[in-house]
Amino acid sequence: MLGNVRLPNPIGLAAGYDKDGLLYDRFSRWGMGFYIVGSITAHRRRPLPRPRLYRSRDGLWMLNAFGLPSEGVIPVSRRINGMRARVPIISNVAGFSLSEFSVLIRAMDSLPQVSAIELNISCPLFDDPAGMDELAALSSGLTRKPLLIKLSPRHSRILENAVHIAEENGLGISVYNTIPVTTDLLGAGRGGMSGLPLYRRTLSALARIREVSDRIPLMAIGGIMTGVQVLEALEAGADAVQALTAVAFRGPIAFRRMSEELLEAMEAKGYRSVSEAKGYRSRALVRAN
Ligand SMILES: Cc1cc2nc3c(=O)[nH]c(=O)nc-3n(C[C@H](O)[C@H](O)[C@H](O)COP(=O)(O)O)c2cc1C
Asked: Which of 13, 34, 117, 178 to mutate to test the pocket of ligand 1 (most atoms within 8 A of CB)?
Protein backbone atom coordinates (compact mmCIF):
# COMPACT_ATOMS: atom_id res chain seq x y z
CA MET A 1 0.00 0.00 0.00
CA LEU A 2 1.07 3.55 -0.67
CA GLY A 3 -1.36 5.77 1.22
CA ASN A 4 -4.71 4.41 0.03
CA VAL A 5 -3.35 2.98 -3.25
CA ARG A 6 -3.10 -0.80 -3.35
CA LEU A 7 -0.01 -1.92 -5.28
CA PRO A 8 0.29 -5.47 -6.66
CA ASN A 9 3.96 -5.40 -5.61
CA PRO A 10 6.16 -2.68 -4.12
CA ILE A 11 8.60 -2.26 -7.08
CA GLY A 12 7.66 0.37 -9.65
CA LEU A 13 9.12 1.95 -12.79
CA ALA A 14 10.61 5.39 -11.97
CA ALA A 15 9.93 8.58 -13.92
CA GLY A 16 11.93 9.21 -17.07
CA TYR A 17 11.59 5.91 -18.89
CA ASP A 18 8.22 6.75 -20.39
CA LYS A 19 7.98 10.52 -20.28
CA ASP A 20 4.98 10.86 -22.60
CA GLY A 21 3.12 7.63 -21.81
CA LEU A 22 3.87 6.19 -25.24
CA LEU A 23 5.05 2.81 -23.98
CA TYR A 24 2.56 1.86 -21.29
CA ASP A 25 0.73 -0.84 -23.22
CA ARG A 26 3.92 -2.78 -23.88
CA PHE A 27 6.07 -2.00 -20.84
CA SER A 28 3.38 -2.38 -18.17
CA ARG A 29 3.57 -6.14 -18.80
CA TRP A 30 7.06 -6.29 -17.30
CA GLY A 31 5.84 -7.23 -13.83
CA MET A 32 6.22 -3.91 -12.03
CA GLY A 33 3.88 -3.02 -9.17
CA PHE A 34 3.20 0.48 -10.53
CA TYR A 35 4.18 2.56 -13.54
CA ILE A 36 5.24 6.19 -13.55
CA VAL A 37 4.50 8.33 -16.60
CA GLY A 38 6.53 11.56 -16.85
CA SER A 39 7.91 13.98 -16.11
CA ILE A 40 4.99 15.71 -17.79
CA THR A 41 5.39 19.48 -18.22
CA ALA A 42 2.75 22.15 -18.79
CA HIS A 43 4.05 23.04 -22.25
CA ARG A 44 5.87 21.17 -24.97
CA ARG A 45 9.64 21.08 -24.31
CA ARG A 46 12.46 20.04 -26.60
CA PRO A 47 15.36 17.87 -25.40
CA LEU A 48 18.88 19.18 -24.71
CA PRO A 49 21.68 18.53 -27.23
CA ARG A 50 23.09 15.00 -27.67
CA PRO A 51 24.63 12.94 -26.18
CA ARG A 52 21.96 12.81 -23.48
CA LEU A 53 22.77 9.49 -21.89
CA TYR A 54 26.00 7.82 -20.79
CA ARG A 55 26.03 4.28 -19.43
CA SER A 56 29.07 3.32 -17.40
CA ARG A 57 31.05 0.30 -18.56
CA ASP A 58 32.65 -0.53 -15.25
CA GLY A 59 30.10 0.50 -12.65
CA LEU A 60 26.33 0.34 -12.17
CA TRP A 61 25.60 4.00 -12.92
CA MET A 62 24.47 6.29 -15.72
CA LEU A 63 24.54 10.00 -16.50
CA ASN A 64 21.67 11.73 -18.25
CA ALA A 65 20.69 15.20 -19.34
CA PHE A 66 17.47 15.19 -21.32
CA GLY A 67 16.25 18.54 -20.00
CA LEU A 68 12.73 17.34 -19.18
CA PRO A 69 11.47 17.01 -22.76
CA SER A 70 7.71 16.48 -22.89
CA GLU A 71 4.93 16.61 -25.43
CA GLY A 72 3.13 18.78 -22.87
CA VAL A 73 0.20 18.14 -20.58
CA ILE A 74 -2.62 18.27 -23.14
CA PRO A 75 -1.49 15.45 -25.47
CA VAL A 76 -0.10 13.33 -22.63
CA SER A 77 -3.35 13.63 -20.62
CA ARG A 78 -5.31 12.59 -23.67
CA ARG A 79 -3.04 9.56 -24.08
CA ILE A 80 -3.37 8.55 -20.40
CA ASN A 81 -7.12 8.90 -20.73
CA GLY A 82 -7.04 6.20 -23.41
CA MET A 83 -5.07 3.74 -21.26
CA ARG A 84 -6.56 0.65 -19.70
CA ALA A 85 -4.75 0.71 -16.37
CA ARG A 86 -3.28 -2.78 -15.99
CA VAL A 87 -0.97 -1.71 -13.17
CA PRO A 88 -1.49 1.47 -11.13
CA ILE A 89 -0.33 4.59 -12.99
CA ILE A 90 1.40 7.40 -11.13
CA SER A 91 1.90 10.68 -13.00
CA ASN A 92 5.11 12.58 -12.38
CA VAL A 93 4.66 16.27 -13.17
CA ALA A 94 7.33 18.98 -13.39
CA GLY A 95 6.32 22.63 -13.13
CA PHE A 96 8.49 25.73 -13.35
CA SER A 97 6.08 27.92 -11.39
CA LEU A 98 3.16 27.46 -9.00
CA SER A 99 0.70 28.16 -11.77
CA GLU A 100 2.23 25.46 -13.99
CA PHE A 101 2.01 22.96 -11.14
CA SER A 102 -1.58 23.96 -10.65
CA VAL A 103 -2.43 23.27 -14.32
CA LEU A 104 -0.60 19.94 -14.18
CA ILE A 105 -2.21 18.73 -10.95
CA ARG A 106 -5.72 19.69 -12.08
CA ALA A 107 -5.17 17.80 -15.34
CA MET A 108 -3.96 14.66 -13.52
CA ASP A 109 -6.74 14.94 -10.94
CA SER A 110 -9.31 14.67 -13.73
CA LEU A 111 -7.92 11.35 -15.03
CA PRO A 112 -9.42 8.23 -13.40
CA GLN A 113 -6.44 6.16 -14.63
CA VAL A 114 -4.03 8.15 -12.42
CA SER A 115 -3.72 6.66 -8.91
CA ALA A 116 -1.26 9.20 -7.49
CA ILE A 117 0.73 12.27 -8.51
CA GLU A 118 4.47 12.76 -7.96
CA LEU A 119 5.81 16.33 -8.04
CA ASN A 120 9.25 16.68 -9.61
CA ILE A 121 10.61 19.84 -8.01
CA SER A 122 13.72 20.25 -10.19
CA CYS A 123 12.99 23.95 -10.49
CA PRO A 124 15.11 26.04 -8.02
CA LEU A 125 11.95 27.98 -7.01
CA PHE A 126 11.11 25.05 -4.76
CA ASP A 127 14.60 24.53 -3.33
CA ASP A 128 13.98 26.33 -0.05
CA PRO A 129 11.39 25.40 2.59
CA ALA A 130 9.25 28.50 1.85
CA GLY A 131 8.85 27.61 -1.83
CA MET A 132 8.25 23.96 -0.98
CA ASP A 133 5.62 24.88 1.59
CA GLU A 134 3.74 27.07 -0.88
CA LEU A 135 3.73 24.28 -3.45
CA ALA A 136 2.62 21.64 -0.93
CA ALA A 137 -0.24 23.80 0.35
CA LEU A 138 -1.40 24.63 -3.18
CA SER A 139 -1.18 21.02 -4.38
CA SER A 140 -3.10 19.49 -1.50
CA GLY A 141 -5.99 21.88 -2.19
CA LEU A 142 -6.22 20.77 -5.81
CA THR A 143 -6.65 17.01 -5.58
CA ARG A 144 -7.63 14.20 -3.26
CA LYS A 145 -5.30 11.79 -5.04
CA PRO A 146 -2.16 10.89 -3.07
CA LEU A 147 0.65 13.39 -3.74
CA LEU A 148 4.39 12.80 -3.38
CA ILE A 149 7.18 15.38 -3.45
CA LYS A 150 10.18 13.97 -5.29
CA LEU A 151 13.35 15.37 -3.76
CA SER A 152 16.83 15.64 -5.21
CA PRO A 153 20.00 14.85 -3.21
CA ARG A 154 20.53 18.62 -3.18
CA HIS A 155 17.55 18.82 -0.80
CA SER A 156 19.44 16.64 1.69
CA ARG A 157 20.33 19.63 3.89
CA ILE A 158 16.65 20.50 4.31
CA LEU A 159 15.32 16.94 4.40
CA GLU A 160 13.72 17.25 7.85
CA ASN A 161 12.01 20.54 6.86
CA ALA A 162 10.70 18.84 3.72
CA VAL A 163 9.23 16.01 5.79
CA HIS A 164 7.44 18.45 8.11
CA ILE A 165 6.07 20.40 5.15
CA ALA A 166 4.89 17.25 3.39
CA GLU A 167 3.34 15.84 6.54
CA GLU A 168 1.50 19.04 7.45
CA ASN A 169 -0.04 19.16 3.99
CA GLY A 170 -0.81 15.44 3.77
CA LEU A 171 1.81 14.66 1.09
CA GLY A 172 4.33 11.81 0.83
CA ILE A 173 8.01 11.91 -0.13
CA SER A 174 10.03 10.22 -2.88
CA VAL A 175 13.82 10.13 -2.41
CA TYR A 176 15.84 10.63 -4.60
CA ASN A 177 16.11 12.14 -8.06
CA THR A 178 19.58 11.98 -9.71
CA ILE A 179 22.77 13.51 -8.28
CA PRO A 180 23.62 16.77 -10.13
CA VAL A 181 27.04 16.59 -11.83
CA THR A 182 29.08 18.56 -14.36
CA THR A 183 30.52 16.37 -17.10
CA ASP A 184 32.05 16.38 -20.59
CA LEU A 185 30.30 13.11 -21.37
CA LEU A 186 26.96 14.80 -22.11
CA GLY A 187 26.05 17.44 -24.67
CA ALA A 188 24.72 19.80 -22.00
CA GLY A 189 28.00 19.71 -20.02
CA ARG A 190 26.02 18.75 -16.92
CA GLY A 191 23.48 16.15 -15.94
CA GLY A 192 22.24 13.75 -13.30
CA MET A 193 23.89 10.59 -12.04
CA SER A 194 21.68 7.58 -11.33
CA GLY A 195 22.36 4.06 -10.13
CA LEU A 196 24.53 2.61 -7.41
CA PRO A 197 26.25 5.86 -6.24
CA LEU A 198 22.78 7.00 -5.09
CA TYR A 199 21.89 3.90 -3.14
CA ARG A 200 23.56 4.69 0.21
CA ARG A 201 22.30 8.28 0.06
CA THR A 202 18.79 7.01 -0.46
CA LEU A 203 19.02 4.57 2.45
CA SER A 204 20.37 7.27 4.72
CA ALA A 205 17.56 9.62 3.65
CA LEU A 206 14.98 6.93 4.48
CA ALA A 207 16.45 6.54 7.98
CA ARG A 208 16.46 10.32 8.54
CA ILE A 209 12.89 10.64 7.32
CA ARG A 210 11.62 7.80 9.50
CA GLU A 211 13.24 9.43 12.51
CA VAL A 212 11.06 12.46 11.94
CA SER A 213 7.87 10.70 10.83
CA ASP A 214 6.85 7.07 10.97
CA ARG A 215 3.60 7.70 9.08
CA ILE A 216 4.48 9.69 5.98
CA PRO A 217 4.10 7.73 2.69
CA LEU A 218 7.64 7.10 1.48
CA MET A 219 9.11 5.95 -1.84
CA ALA A 220 12.75 4.89 -2.17
CA ILE A 221 14.55 5.54 -5.47
CA GLY A 222 18.24 5.35 -6.33
CA GLY A 223 20.40 2.45 -7.43
CA ILE A 224 17.89 -0.21 -6.41
CA MET A 225 18.61 -3.14 -8.70
CA THR A 226 18.17 -6.34 -6.65
CA GLY A 227 15.54 -7.85 -4.35
CA VAL A 228 17.98 -7.66 -1.44
CA GLN A 229 18.20 -3.90 -1.95
CA VAL A 230 14.41 -3.66 -2.18
CA LEU A 231 14.16 -5.42 1.18
CA GLU A 232 16.81 -3.13 2.67
CA ALA A 233 14.80 -0.09 1.54
CA LEU A 234 11.55 -1.53 2.96
CA GLU A 235 13.26 -2.33 6.25
CA ALA A 236 14.57 1.23 6.36
CA GLY A 237 10.99 2.44 6.18
CA ALA A 238 10.06 2.76 2.48
CA ASP A 239 6.48 1.87 1.56
CA ALA A 240 7.50 1.14 -2.03
CA VAL A 241 10.55 1.51 -4.28
CA GLN A 242 11.15 2.71 -7.81
CA ALA A 243 13.83 1.65 -10.28
CA LEU A 244 15.05 2.87 -13.64
CA THR A 245 18.80 2.32 -14.02
CA ALA A 246 18.15 -1.35 -13.11
CA VAL A 247 16.32 -1.71 -16.44
CA ALA A 248 19.38 -0.42 -18.33
CA PHE A 249 21.63 -3.00 -16.66
CA ARG A 250 19.32 -6.00 -16.18
CA GLY A 251 16.86 -5.45 -19.04
CA PRO A 252 13.03 -5.56 -18.88
CA ILE A 253 13.21 -8.76 -16.82
CA ALA A 254 14.55 -6.62 -13.94
CA PHE A 255 11.12 -6.24 -12.28
CA ARG A 256 10.26 -9.97 -12.30
CA ARG A 257 13.76 -10.85 -11.06
CA MET A 258 13.66 -8.24 -8.29
CA SER A 259 10.24 -9.53 -7.14
CA GLU A 260 11.52 -13.12 -7.03
CA GLU A 261 14.68 -12.05 -5.22
CA LEU A 262 12.62 -10.01 -2.77
CA LEU A 263 10.52 -13.06 -1.89
CA GLU A 264 13.68 -15.14 -1.38
CA ALA A 265 15.28 -12.43 0.76
CA MET A 266 12.08 -12.11 2.84
CA GLU A 267 11.87 -15.85 3.31
CA ALA A 268 15.52 -16.01 4.42
CA LYS A 269 14.75 -13.44 7.12
CA GLY A 270 11.46 -15.01 8.15
CA TYR A 271 9.16 -12.19 6.98
CA ARG A 272 5.74 -13.46 5.96
CA SER A 273 4.64 -10.26 4.19
CA VAL A 274 5.93 -6.98 2.82
CA SER A 275 4.14 -5.13 5.60
CA GLU A 276 5.98 -7.20 8.18
CA ALA A 277 9.31 -6.24 6.57
CA LYS A 278 8.37 -2.56 6.25
CA GLY A 279 10.02 -0.28 8.74
CA TYR A 280 11.49 -3.24 10.59
CA ARG A 281 14.77 -1.52 11.22
CA SER A 282 13.26 1.80 12.28
CA ARG A 283 10.89 0.01 14.69
CA ALA A 284 13.82 -2.03 16.04
CA LEU A 285 15.73 1.20 16.62
CA VAL A 286 12.84 2.72 18.51
CA ARG A 287 12.58 -0.42 20.65
CA ALA A 288 16.32 -0.34 21.34
CA ASN A 289 16.16 3.23 22.64
C1 LIG B 1 17.38 8.56 -18.44
C2 LIG B 1 16.74 9.10 -17.19
C3 LIG B 1 15.69 9.99 -17.31
C4 LIG B 1 15.07 10.49 -16.16
N5 LIG B 1 14.03 11.37 -16.29
C6 LIG B 1 13.35 11.77 -15.17
C7 LIG B 1 12.21 12.60 -15.29
O8 LIG B 1 11.76 12.98 -16.37
N9 LIG B 1 11.59 12.99 -14.14
C10 LIG B 1 12.02 12.60 -12.89
O11 LIG B 1 11.40 12.96 -11.88
N12 LIG B 1 13.11 11.79 -12.77
C13 LIG B 1 13.77 11.38 -13.86
N14 LIG B 1 14.85 10.54 -13.74
C15 LIG B 1 15.29 10.13 -12.38
C16 LIG B 1 14.75 8.76 -12.02
O17 LIG B 1 13.35 8.74 -11.95
C18 LIG B 1 15.33 8.28 -10.67
O19 LIG B 1 14.95 9.19 -9.66
C20 LIG B 1 16.84 8.18 -10.68
O21 LIG B 1 17.32 7.70 -11.92
C22 LIG B 1 17.37 7.27 -9.58
O23 LIG B 1 16.87 5.95 -9.71
P24 LIG B 1 17.72 4.75 -10.42
O25 LIG B 1 19.06 4.76 -9.80
O26 LIG B 1 16.91 3.52 -10.16
O27 LIG B 1 17.77 5.10 -11.87
C28 LIG B 1 15.51 10.07 -14.87
C29 LIG B 1 16.59 9.18 -14.78
C30 LIG B 1 17.20 8.68 -15.91
C31 LIG B 1 18.35 7.73 -15.75
From this structure: 178
